[in-house]
Amino acid sequence: MKTAIWTLLFIAAAIPAALYFYQRWRQTQAERKGLAVYATVISVTPIKRFGKTLPMANIVMWIQEPGETKPRQVTLRSRIEPGQQIDPGVRLGVVIDPRDPKRIYPAGPVAQERIVFTGSRIERRQMKSGRGIGAPGQQQPGSRRGPIPGPPPGRRGSR
After folding, report:
1. Which of 13, 112, 127, 148 has a 20 to 30 A CA-CA distance from 65?
2. Which residues, 6+ apart, have CB-to-CB distance to 85 below 8 Å?
């Protein structure tokens, strides 16, 4: 009887651990072999459990894969460092799992080096130049107004 209880306890502890390590292995394989692209953040909602806000958030994003004309909406649940803020419109690097294209992971340093630029021609040029969308002095895509005003020349920060 005691042996059966200890066996059940061991199995109850081993299954979640095995699933965790399998998930981590799958994420590293996706980071090495998967397609790395930029995703545009639509919204960020903090996760709450029992009335407490956790250091995690559901991040809803649009991903446009190369060769596709329409972006698709995906959700990523990820830890967020205290004090870090992710605003809508920001582009985050993500990796698409080659086995299951519906599964995405945050891009690590290995995947960041081989990100594929997608989107309109203006967006791709801005991302390749390192200036990004909405940088001071650039015109927003689809906007008929002039460039976005930036800080006055010669002033880099507060004194």
Report:
1. 148
2. none
Among 142, 120, 131, which residue's Cα sits nearest to residue 62? 120
- Domain residue spans of the chain: 35-129
Q: Which residues pair with 53 in a beta bridge?
A: 48
List, in sequence order, the alpha helices (H) in 34-135: 109-112, 121-129
The conformation of residue 119, written as its DSSP 8-state character, comes to: S
Q: Rounded to two decimals, what is the model's pTM?
A: 0.60
**Number of helical H runs and strand E runs in the chain:** 3, 5
Instruction: Give the HSE-up count for residue 20: Cα atoms under 13 Å, Cβ half-sphere.
Output: 5
Please give the structure tokens belonging to residue 58.
């559901």
Q: Rounded to whole angstroms, how far apart are CA atoms 17 and 26? A: 14
DSSP 8-state code for residue 83: T
For the segment 19-28, what is each residue's pLDDT rounded down to a tens digit? 989 888 888 8
pLDDT tens-digit readout, 77-110:
888 887 888 888 888 888 888 888 888 888 888 7
Task: Report the distance separating Cα 55 and Cα 2, nearest Å.
Answer: 40
